[in-house]
Structures are given as structure tokens and as C-alpha cells.
């Protein structure tokens, strides 16, 4: 049983900051070494030191819940309330309106977590941009990726057709069917490529954005390979959370394994959307980006010895213990 199901049963302006890999984080290293007392903890602290401040690249429909992981890291957000759950900051489900201006900049230390401003996106879905902008965050980016057709369907069912002329509205999971799935899909395709390569934000979707070409998609895939300190997969959520902590340390918390923005549309028995409604459409450009993310993810699972078994024995148990101790 996945931890998320098991758990339900048991109950920053940082845009101008220089990303300096040499800045000491002795306090963090001491904390992690005291927690773990091992050579592994020291290695985690050193890996973390090199990637601070982390810059979260959040593609739409690729894991809002990851905010709980970042907020819960040692020293990242020292002013956040104890046992803080990011869902409480956006009770209407519209986290992008509040995360950077209200959560990140109010609670978090920008030496640890880069808080995007409006020039970088909409305070939440940041754009990496042109070469000079990319170089500022290269090696510091973290984020999750999602199978492209599943991401498109999640966006459609979540009311994202508002951006392309439909009657869906932001954040309230409202969809009135103004656009059909086959009409919507090509308008919203390429978002991973778009976010990793376009120099400044415009309205989401191919209707308003640049033409997504194969060369842009290959550049985006290259940036995933060379620019991301951590890559997770939305459809491998539990393993992704365990991998993050295996790489960078920090205690595992139950809130990290809870989906703070669950979709309301019916899914198949395997938890995926039925893609037949796309009538054969495939997001080929984002497929190139996603393939690179999958490759990196599985390489790092092997490198850091993360598996379902190790996750269950380590991170999950730690999260459950935290529940009982709370």
C-alpha cells in the first residue's frame, strides 16, 4: 500500500541574490550531523551546501505538495509555525497566489530557499528564461516532472481551460466543458519546455506562448540534466520524497506524503487518467523533457540506494513516528 493511502488510514525578494555555492552553512551541517551522526549525514550536508539556495521550478500540475518538503527542511523556513502544512496557507486551493509573497518571503530564509518574484513568473510557476537568467539558477533548481499526457488531463480537469478561452476558473477546480479535451491539449502542451526555456512569462499555453520546437525541447532536456540538483516524478511521489531526503538530509514529515491538491476527476485503477479522451494526441516536445527527467530519477535512485523497501523502512517510519509524537 502506498504511504499516502496508509497515512490516511492511520492518521524571499530573492531574484537579485547571488547564488553563491561557497557560502558556509556550518549550522546546517552541525544539525544534520547531530541528527544522523554519520558520514552519510555529513555527505548530505555537503551536497546541500553546494545547491543552496534551492530554487523550486514548479511546472503546473507537477506537485504542489512538494512545498511541504521545502518548508520542512532544517533552517529553510525558521519562521514557519511548527508542523506547518502549506495547504493551510491557501484554503481555496490557489497556492500560486500566496506561496512566494506570503509563505516563502514571510517564513523562509532566502539563503536556503530562493523566493521568486513577479518578474520571474506569477510568484509560483517561475520561468528559467534566457541563458543569462538560467545561469543564475543552474545547479540550484529542484522540482518534479510528470508524464506529459497525464499532466495535460490533470490541467484540463482542474479548470485550466480558462487560459485558452474556456469557462474554467483559476483554483476552484471548475470546468464547464467550453473546450473539449482534444481542443485543449495542443493549447496547453509544451509547458515543461516552455517554462525551462522562455525568457519571460506570458499567459500559459501554446495559444499565447512561443512555438514549441524540437530544438527548444532538447534545450529544456539539457537544462534538466545540467541545471537541476534534484529531479522527482509526480507519479513516483513516495520514492521522490525519500530520494530528496536521501540526497539532502532533513527529517521526513507526514505532510510530505499527503496530496494537498488532489484531482477530483475519476481515474483508472492504477491512479492514472484515461488518455483515450485525447484521441491520440501526444505532447511530443514535453515527452523529450520528461524522458530525461525519468532517466535522471532512476539513476539517482540507484546512486543513493533508494527503493520502496528502503523508503518504507526509513523515511516512512520517520514520518509515522512524527505523527505519533505530535
Automatic annotation (TrEMBL):
<dbReference type="InterPro" id="IPR027417">
    <property type="entry name" value="P-loop_NTPase"/>
</dbReference>
<protein>
    <submittedName>
        <fullName>Uncharacterized protein</fullName>
    </submittedName>
</protein>
<keyword id="KW-0732">Signal</keyword>
<feature type="signal peptide">
    <location>
        <begin position="1"/>
        <end position="15"/>
    </location>
</feature>
